[in-house]
Amino acid sequence: MLARDEYTCQLCHKHGEGVKLVVHHIVYRSQGGTDRVDNLITLCTNCHTTKNHQPGGKLYKWMKAKKKVTKQLKGATFMNILRKRIMTTFPEASFQYGSQTYVERKNLLLPKGHFMDAIAISGIKPVGQMPETVTMISQFRKKKRSLHEATARKGRKQPNMSSKRNEKNTKYACGL
Predict the structure, then answer these.
(1) What is the pTM of this model?
(2) Are 27 and 39 within 8 A, CB to CB?
């Protein structure tokens, strides 16, 4: 979001060395807002205040209007920014282009597919046997978020006494 917004506060348009920037949720998370790119915007700490979050504040008005971010990064630009950050964070990682993956997949006589590409870039030399099934692993919640039902969660006025999501809290899913 910082790169997309050109490291500029989208409310007061300040930018530069002395400006501390934060990423803000347009639709607040307490109101069901997500971490999706189109729900995030860059603000300076002078604009990202409690007063602006309250009714009558500019950020509150944006939330109610579900402000749309007009400028979006194209996929390739976004991936280049992400690649640079990943390679900086994990210097021991190596980068591989799709053309390299294609050649390795063909050498291993694998059909086209995301799972096969993962096998090809894993460094495995021979593939002894093709799997007949693929296991997908999905996380599911085992416990409630609220540690104590009599206490209201952060950002909530009412305690979490009868949340419907508690019905989903189970130790098992699909027999597993």
Answers:
(1) 0.46
(2) yes
